[in-house]
Amino acid sequence: MAQLRWRIPHPTTKSLDYDIRVVVIGDKLGYWSRGIRKDDFRASGSGSVSYDKNLVSPALINTAFEAASALDTDCMGFDIIYDPKTHDPLIIEMSYGFPHATLLESGGYYDKEGTWHNSPLNAPVAILKRLLNKAEKQKLSANQVKLTS
């Protein structure tokens, strides 16, 4: 699976202080924010991590879940900023890879309704459970086809 990356030139990028890395696994959304490096537009690798829930708006949650659903992914990471003019969340990068430990340290996750759950989102476990659940549903569907044939 290839990582899709693109850079969107934005005249106000230098005025941004952070981006938000959002990870969507099924009906769970974990996050952390990353400070922008001095004299740079990138947050990746800055070492400045925060778990401020005030940065996660209902619009951001909806945007991330809608994108993951449209892409039909089991797990996807999105880098999101808020447009400085409209304050709408904008996805600026997506990636299947992210630091698992950083996600665990957030201490919880949001569901699709925007409710916070105080249980760490353990990505490998959540992905495995999701895939096993899908496989079980497919197995049941296959058995139903055999029974009705």
TrEMBL record:
This is ATP-grasp domain-containing protein. It comes from Halomonas piscis.
